[in-house]
Amino acid sequence: MNKLGMYEIILAIAILLFTSVVFAAKTPDEVNRAKILNKTYRMQIPFIENKGQIGDSNVSFYAKTFEGTLFVGKNGTLNLQPPL
């Protein structure tokens, strides 16, 4: 898988995580789904390539989010570490 493909996968997963958190927090009557989805699709999460910043060599990319740090493993696994 090339780097562009990995970025697309990471962005899609991040969008799904974000929208699930937003929709889980409110009842359907309170949510304007089209507005939230539109904002979510335009959202950018800055994933950083691991070039030794993270001690675990199995981590390819990571991103610091409001929910914690999201790690992407070389085999495509995701691991969310909540903030301390």
Structural write-up:
This protein is of the alpha+beta class. The chain has one domain (3-81). Helix content is 39%, strand content 23%. The protein is built from 2 helices and 4 strands. The protein has helices at residues 3-25, 33-42, and strands at 48-49, 59-65, 68-73, 78-81. A 4-stranded antiparallel sheet has the order 1-2-3-4, with no helix packed on it. Strand 3 and strand 4 (78-81) form a beta hairpin. Helix 1 packs antiparallel against helix 2 (33-42). The longest helix is centred in the N-terminal third of the chain and has 23 residues, at 3-25. The radius of gyration is 14 Å and the shape is elongated. The chain starts with a helix and ends with a strand.
Strand content: 15-25%
Order of helices and strands: HHEEEE
- Average per-residue pLDDT, rounded, comes to 76
User: In total, how many beta strands?
Assistant: 4
- Secondary structure: helix percent: 25-40%
Strand arrangement in the largest pleated sheet? 1-2-3-4
Q: Main beta sheet, described?
A: 4 strands, antiparallel
User: Quick one: overall form?
Assistant: elongated
In whole angstroms, the N-to-C terminal distance is 33 Å
The total domain count is 1
Structural class: alpha+beta
Low-pLDDT runs of 5+ residues are none
Rg over CA atoms, rounded to whole Å, is 14 Å
Helical run tally: 2
